[in-house]
Protein: DNA fragmentation factor subunit alpha
Amino acid sequence: MAARLKPCVVRRGDGREQHGLAASCLRELRDKAGRALAIGEDGRPITLVLAEDGTIVDDEDYFLCLPSNTKFVALAKGERWSGRSADSRSTWLSEPADEVDSGAERWRQLARQLKGDLSNIILMSEEDLQVLIDVPRSDLAEELAQSQTKTQVLQDTLQQVLDRREEERQSKQLLELYLEALKNEDSILSKVAESESVPRKEMDVVDTGTSSAGTSARTALSDQIFAVLKEKPAPELCLDSQTLELVVKEDTQALAAALSWDKQKAEAVQQACDQELSKRLQQVQTLHSLRSTSRGKKALPCGDGLSSKRKK
Structure:
């Protein structure tokens, strides 16, 4: 039995021309979108995101759960979701924080993202969360068209997300300190054992540090991102999801050279960013699934017997 085709609509990130396509799976949709939009012809994979909010669609099961005629934006390798199309109501930020309009425009843009979909909280950076927390409650309530009571609950939730990330960061720092202490203890015991076994020979001290001097590497990351990666503990908790994706996709050797790190440390940071990104996207997908299920239940007709209240 042939697989059922799902009708979809695709377009380029900055284009208005849309193409209607039908595909039975995500891979087939990628192939058809690449041919229709003339991208990915160099063999590089393309990325499909939801036109509504920029959610990356890279899971076959999630694709099958989407409704018919879902709108997608196709991105070639190296392109980023901008969310400035006419049919996009809630988006990720396409520019780094220092390039986005500051002050009132900044928090209003973030508020519009939450107005479109509250699950965008998961994808925001710590700086974005703090901006919304600091907005006067009356102003945020007006922008969201919500009561001040509900807005207070929202800001409390934002603070809880921020606190949770800080707790996670502190836990990671404690674990790193513990592992470093164990490593130093093993090193000291090893040196003592060597000195006792060869008491009359002087031990040569060898510098095993890795130097990246002289390495010229170009990366797509901004100076602000480099500062976070180099100075912040558990930097993956500070960055928004789009920036996490950029770090994961960056060439490891180039990243290590730009940060004056060894390759192993750069790989560890990329792995941590990849895990954090996967966790956030999984949380968003779970929320969307729960929301769809809840809407389905509300649409079911209720009989008189089910609608009657139980008397005490």
